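Much of the work behind modern protein science is quiet bookkeeping, done one molecule at a time. The protein below has been through that process, and both of its lines are reproduced in full.
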Amino acid sequence: MITKFFNDRLMFIANVLPLIAFVWAFRFLGNWEHAFEIGGLLSLVYIVVSLHAKKTEQSFMLAIHCFLLGGACMFLLEIDWLQNIYAHFLYATLFLWLFIVGCLQTIYSPAGFVGLPGAPRERVVRASCILLLATFAAFLFAWKGPQSMILVAVLPFIALNYVRVVLQKMYE
């Protein structure tokens, strides 16, 4: 019991560490390239460990890991089309990744994008589609809104998480 508790806490810390390292690296190094490389490398390590442990990933954190991995690949592998996407959409790129992850989870995961394990498939798909619409709205706001990270990235992300929780309560 105690071992499981500590393993769960360790996995939680490992899950958020790439994002913390990304923010920290950008804040103190002032360089997007190094921040993405650090965050992306830690995301890759976390994904490999969680796959080995057969741990399922919550959609929002999986999207953050994809965002960081994509950013790292963009710089390390010098992928032009990926650099264009990140440069064009800026903060909205995170919501683009969230939308992609959400679509895939809606199609392939029994719990869907909204995360309703054990619920009837029709309810899962309906709730996931509503969350996908909200994610698309957040993407548009982040893309066309004011270029303040708090306004167009942090607050919409928190709002989407709230929408997800409300949908889970409504459709469970």
Remarks:
- The first helix runs from residue 2 to 29.
- The helical segments are 2-29, 32-52, 59-76, 80-89, 92-108, 121-144, 149-171.
- Residues 1-89 form one domain.
- The chain has a mean pLDDT of 91.
